Amino acid sequence: MFNSEDNRIDSGRYATNSQSIQFGPWHVSYDISCILPSVCSTKVVCERDDDQFCQFCIYCKELSIPHFPDMVFPKNTLKLAHKSGAIIHFNPLDALKCVGKNEIIEVSCAEAWQEARPESEKLKKAFDWTFSTDYKGTLTDNIVVEETHEVIDFEILKQRDQILFYHDLTLFEDELHDHGVSKLSVKIRVMPSYWYVLLRYFLRVDDVLVRSRETRMFHLLNTDYVLREYTFKEANAKDLNMPTSQMKEADDVIPYLTVKEKVTHKLIVNFDSNS
């Protein structure tokens, strides 16, 4: 096993910091960079017909949502690459492609606002302004997904072994016009006998609801598969019986949310695939 670190500037003129480690047949790496700009940064280049676009224009072309979260980190990525060529990848662009288009969540003051303006009509746009996403990571075609009853052994995760590699990456975050928070982050931890990933989408709409969508991936050394556990939780704020001040941190409130969906899969590398 080894660590490496380097700083580089990619083709989009983004200075990125990268670190990586080799774990058995898996090469684990992450990149960190700056926030997505709010406007095109290279208009002359992006207007040329040569498929060379800045990150802002790439997001505009790839996404159908009317606006982006306050903070998007386009080059913050986590990649787990198997020696066979199979890749598990986490990035904000693919996550935002999974944002729903029809969910309407109103802030707590919306009803009072409407009552004060009885002549107004509710104009509901087909856009989820909370950026709720059920993104579970991006898999290459040579990874087979199978249902399983096997679960992640959390007792292994509790063992106090040496941490060989760790990082917590924010993919995007939005403060919902001061009405809460919407955040997608991914953590990677590599230990002597396993690697573990937690992808978490956390949503808090003040005085309305709290939601989490968590994808955990666990790979034990000398096994030929990855366990992926997806859990969707949600609760109305009024049902939680706690003040908003205690809902600020995801770790403090998620244990109290109601489980709406939980499913576990095995991710198996298909060595016969030519993809």
TrEMBL record:
Its transmembrane ranges are none
Name of one Pfam family that matches: TIP41
GO annotations under biological process? TOR signaling
InterPro entries found in the cross-reference section: Phosphatase_reg/MetRdx (IPR051330), TIP41-like (IPR007303)
Which residues fall in a coiled-coil region? Answer: none
Q: Name one GO cellular component term.
A: cytosol
By sequence similarity, the record places it as follows: Belongs to the TIP41 family.
Instruction: State the name under which the record lists this protein.
Output: TIP41-like protein
Q: What is the scientific name of the source organism? A: Manduca sexta (Tobacco hawkmoth)
